[in-house]
Amino acid sequence: MKGILILLGAALFLTGCATHQSPTGRGQTLLFSSQEMSQLGDSSFAQIKQQEKISQDKAVNAYVNCVADRVTQALPDQSLPWEVVVFESDQVNAFALPGGHIGVYTGLLDVAISADQLATVIGHEVAHVLANHSNEQVSRAQMTGAGMQLADLALGVGGIADKELYMAALGLGVQVGYILPYGRDQESEADVIGVELMAKAGFDPAQSVELWKNMSKAGGEQGPELLSTHPSHGERIAQLQQMQAKAQPLYQANKLSVKNSCQRPK
Question: Does this model's pTM top 0.85?
Fold first, then answer.
């Protein structure tokens, strides 16, 4: 009986959770506070830095940091410092985590062949954080009970019961061996927010189309790791082309005010 009451309490707790709206007006159920998500992002990023080889190439680090800094400086909230780390790996991949963390793999630079194209990927990944997609994913993992203790959450005594599952929910599936993919709505939302973000940072949003064309050619039929949970290449490119009417004026209005020109290393 006690177990039934605990599970009932957990169900009532989840049902009563506040429903939020994403930046595009989509309804979201978020079980975790921004502080909890930041702690999870901090912990996960620290673990990735221990597991992956960090690039010591000064030119590459300066270039990636330049692009990432311009993208994050276009965010509405400037109170959070962003940590950017370049990982030495052939993976065509990048990610952003709550708490202000961005990871870029050197293999991505072979496909994102310009600062504008790199800004497309970084903008997209930062957009996932900005739109609370990580919170959505971790909340979904919690609600489905995939390795979690639902009753612990209801009683307020639960910790990180399964770090790998949480990390996968944060978009780190390639690193931890399995993936909890973002949904189509989340991916489309990140495209919209990311393209607008890069345009406000003074990067040419037209290059987002070229970037995903490059992505579609990389890694054979399935594409690189970054695309393993994403919509089809053709669908994404068509959507990005439709976004240009809104994004281009943002780019034209901001490109002349950009102070830092990010030079790709030779």
Answer: no
